[in-house]
Amino acid sequence: MQKVNLSQYDNSWYLPGAPLKRISWYFINIFFFKTSLPFPSAFKTLILRFFGASVGKNCVIKPNVNIKYPWFLELGDHVWIGEAVWIDNLTLIKIGNHVSISQDAYLLTGNHDFKKRSFDLFVGKIIIEDGVWIGAKSIICPNVTCFTHSILCAGSVATTNLEAYGIYQGNPAAFKKKRIVE
Predict the structure, then answer these.
(1) Are 85 and 104 in contact (CB under 8 A)?
(2) What is the phi/psi pair of residue 53, to 5°?
């Protein structure tokens, strides 16, 4: 049987941005986003726009949010991002309008190919359409689309797409029932 050989790991193909831009963002992220200090959301959205994010109107960004690369982030109007959300966007994360991402949720766009000896990095975008609710402590994996008004329940892991108006729960998340909005 073959064995993993991490000395063969090579992600030199992955270039997420200029080094100075990434270093600058690293410190801005620490001081203004990954902090318990309640900086106003309007201030945070200005910073995100400055670093290349597309941000709609009336977004709420709570304290202790971690954003890997804002230039790979698109937020619609009226998006709520709860405390300690980790947006680990090595590639595009697109979040629609009226989306709620609850506390400690993890949006994960990168992973490793465990079938390869070199444990290669791969990335895949995440699309979260309008009206979606991502529950507390849940995880969305690479290449997942949460279609309009779907719900990922607290503590669940989305490894495949969530269908429109579906409520999903578990690890891996499974369809439980239809969402009815009154």
Answers:
(1) yes
(2) -75, 150
Q: The tokens 């990954």 sit on which residue?
A: 34
Is the Cα torsion angle 37, 38, 41, 42 positive or negative in sign? Answer: negative
DSSP 90-155: SS-EEE-SS-EE-TT-EEE-EEE-TTSTT--EEE--EEE-TT-EE-TT-EE-TTEEE-TT-EE-TT
- How many Å apart are CA 176 and CA 144, to the nearest integer? 18
Domain extents in the chain: 18-178
Q: What angle do CA 108, 112, 116 make, to 5 degrees?
A: 165
Task: Give CATH superfamily name and number for 18-178.
Answer: Hexapeptide repeat proteins (2.160.10.10)
Note whether 7 and 116 are within 8 A (CB). no
Backbone angles phi, psi at 92, to 5 degrees: -60, 130
Q: What is the DSSP letter of 30?
A: I
Token pair of 107, please? Answer: 């949006």
Give tens-digit pLDDT for 88-136: 999 999 999 999 999 999 999 999 999 999 999 999 999 999 999 999 9
The whole-angstrom separation of Cα 148 and Cα 142 is 18
Using the structure block, give the residue that is written with the tokens 């902090």. 35
